[in-house]
């Protein structure tokens, strides 16, 4: 059956605008079966990211997908302050209706452990926020390392500077220890960092296509992306658009051939001036087993086409 051949994923996220787009893309990708959405402190406190995930699922009519709330703070240290703004509600001030669907009674950490154990070897964990939930799940149940099919994460930067400071990307900055734990864990992991996500840019030209559809979902997506593009005009005017960070991670989970990768064992600096830097682990440089892949190239036209086809299809049909 087609259902059986679908990729089973857990989307661990912090919506957030591009996370909201990632939820839409994952739910609307016929190749993917979203088993659960787990949310984490990141762009916004975890209560808001959980609510925002539910709001998007209600808009899509997919309240059958459980949403579990997770870590309200990083694994060890205090929350960094003032992440990049995604508007008062974290969704470009669209203020979608308050959800009526309840959150799962499970904590995100247990949701991750249970779903992985129920589907050994099959689960793709798609991470588009700080890695606090995933690292905590691996700490609580270390055996899941060998039962996870693959982790695809949006975060980090290997060949380009960070977006928080010269070497630190936003998702890593919110919990460097969690990212380091995951990077050194040996779990099969693909890193989709700024190296590639700042190549996949969206501009007002694409968002106008959604707005022109005259649907609620079209407006939601267009407002959200325009808000994001405006923020980029201030922070990164040289780019001419906004980076499709989190949606690219979904794209790669669906079709790994969208990116070219480097096999490398990675770590995250957790001390000193380079805290938050994602870099090769010198202690495992000569280890023949490489457990991570870092995306260094991306087929931009193919991804943008996939993204626009999936998202525009939804925006056209929804009320
Ligand atoms: O650096 C990009 C990441 O941080 C994305 O996951 C986005 O949601 C953000 O705030
Ligand atoms: Ca995110």
Write up this protein:
By secondary structure, the chain is an alpha/beta fold. Helices cover 39% and strands 18% of the residues. The protein contains twelve helices and twelve strands. It has an eight-stranded mixed sheet, with helices on both faces. The protein has a two-stranded antiparallel sheet with strand order 7-8. Calcium ion binds next to α2.
Proportion of helical residues: 25-40%
Query: Cα distance, first to last residue?
Result: 31 Å
Q: How would you describe the shape? A: globular
Oligomer, anyone? single chain
Count of DSSP H/I helices: 12
- Biggest sheet: strands side by side, in what order? 3-2-1-4-5-6-12-9
Average pLDDT figure: 93
SSE sequence, one letter per element: HEHEHEHEHEHHEHEHHEHEEEEH
Bound small molecules, deduplicated? alpha-D-ribofuranose, calcium ion
Which runs of at least 5 residues are low in confidence (pLDDT < 50)? none
Structural class: alpha/beta
How many β-strand runs? 12
- Sheet with most strands: 8 strands, mixed
Radius of gyration: 18 Å
Strand content: 15-25%
List descriptors.
319 residues, alpha/beta, 8-stranded mixed sheet, two-stranded antiparallel sheet, 12 helices, binds alpha-D-ribofuranose, binds calcium ion
Short characterization:
The protein is α/β, with parallel strands linked by helices and 319 residues long.
Per-chain topology:
Blueprint: H1 2-5, E1 7-13, H2 17-27, E2 32-39, H3 46-60, E3 67-69, H4 108-118, E4 123-127, H5 132-140, E5 148-154, H6 170-173, H7 176-184, E6 189-192, H8 194-197, E7 201-202, H9 204-211, H10 216-235, E8 242-243, H11 245-254, E9 259-263, E10 266-268, E11 278-280, E12 292-298, H12 300-317
Parallel strand pairs: 1-2, 1-4, 2-3, 4-5, 5-6, 6-12
Antiparallel strand pairs: 7-8, 9-12, 10-11
